[in-house]
Specification:
By secondary structure, the protein is of the alpha/beta class. Helices cover 50% and strands 11% of the residues. The strands form 3 sheets. A 5-stranded mixed sheet has the order 1-3-2-4-7, sandwiched between helices. Strands 5-6 form a two-stranded antiparallel ribbon. Strands 8-9 form a two-stranded antiparallel sheet. β8 (245-246) and β9 (252-254) form a beta hairpin. α3 (67-85) packs across α5 (163-174) and α10 (265-284) packs antiparallel against α11. The protein starts with a helix and ends in a 27-residue tail after the last helix.
């Protein structure tokens, strides 16, 4: 009798797998932008229940009143369409790769119990699930288990909000090499803009050639670009760094971040500006000899020296806020041995 039951299961299981997979592919074909919109019942039947011979990439988000959620849904849909157009919603039997289905579950009263049980780390989350993620709990009910490697939580990973980042995430877990679908109309639009920029640039250059070849323009532009680049523009963009720390009323309470590996945007640009000013002042010393008049020459040299010293003092002051042990001085330390060079700390020879 047991042999018969096992034989029956062996025969029926592939049939059920095939039927369930075909039904999901049919849903994906007919779904808007090839993303299946699950409700509570369909989620339990086609995501949680075995047999499930396919992977499901799930987006959990709000239905309305959330601009960021709408943007993520659009980017997620682009990835779903790219997978669908390249037939990745079907299994790759030759390479033993499961079909990849894209689905969406909105927060609602109906789905509240499901989303609570998942304990998602963020309101908007993408979760990549395989049949191995579905296990039974102590009540013999199916549930999804996951780790940080299979989720994008848009609480701390906002830099993964583009379709390019999402498809990289999905490809890494599906072991596929699907490229994002290119929109020919969008490509043509960008090409027209590019040609327009080139044409406009050529017209401006030929019309205002003397201005664009001005050394003053180039040195000023170079200094501004240098200030922006070394001020931490990439760090600020990635970490969405605030200009300074503010209280609830919007008043600035801290300009300099006390962490040695962190900074505010304003702090970074202030320090990069100070570096440029110090460098420019040091560079300008070579022009002092062109100043006529003995006292004019001496006064300008003294003024430049004072300005350089004040700027360097400001820079070291900022470093001391971030690292209390940092203490360079312009004057010798208290234990410095005065006298001939041969007595200089024992380093002379």
């Amino acid at each position: 009798m047991l042999k018969f039951i096992f034989l029956l299961i062996t025969v029926i299981s592939p049939i059920l797998n095939h039927q369930k997979g075909d039904f999901m592919r049919k849903l994906a074909n007919n779904a808007p932008q090839n993303v299946i919109h699950f409700n509570a019942n369909s989620f339990k039947d086609y995501v949680l229940k075995h047999p499930r011979p396919y992977d499901v990439v799930l987006l959990f988000t709000l239905r309305q009143n959330c601009n960021f959620c709408e943007m993520i849904t659009d980017e997620f849909s682009k990835v779903a369409q790219s997978y669908h157009d390249l037939k990745a919603y079907k299994p790759d039997i030759g390479h033993k790769k499961r079909a990849v289905i894209f689905g969406l579950l909105h927060y609602s009263e109906e789905t509240n119990e499901i989303i609570k049980s998942l304990k998602l780390p963020a309101q908007t989350t993408i979760l990549y699930t395989t049949p191995h993620n579905i296990v039974l709990n102590e009540k013999n009910e199916p549930r999804i288990v996951y780790d940080e490697e299979v989720i994008i939580a848009y609480k701390d990973k906002r830099d993964f909000a583009t379709a390019h980042k999402i498809i990289e995430f999905v490809n890494a877990r599906s072991s596929r090499k699907i490229e994002l679908k290119k929109n020919p109309i969008l490509f043509l639009f960008y090409f027209i803009i590019f040609v327009g920029i080139l044409t406009g640039g050529f017209y401006l250059y030929t019309t205002y050639k003397s201005f664009f070849l001005s050394p003053i323009l180039w040195i000023t532009g170079t200094l501004i670009l240098y200030i922006i680049c070394i001020g931490g523009v990439v760090y600020n963009a990635i970490h969405r760094t605030p200009f300074a720390k503010t209280d609830r009323s919007g008043n600035i309470v801290e300009w300099i971040h006390t962490g040695q590996r962190s900074q505010y945007a304003g702090e970074g640009y202030f320090m990069s500006t100070m570096f440029v000013i110090v460098g420019s002042l040091m560079f300008s010393v070579i022009f002092i000899n062109k100043i006529r008049g003995y006292w004019n020459h001496k006064i300008m040299f003294i003024l430049l020296t004072i300005l350089i010293a004040l700027c360097l003092r400001t820079i070291t002051g900022v470093y001391r806020v971030k690292a209390s042990w940092y203490g360079p001085e312009f004057t010798p330390p208290y234990n410095y041995i005065k006298g001939p060079l041969l007595k200089d700390q024992g380093n002379a020879f």
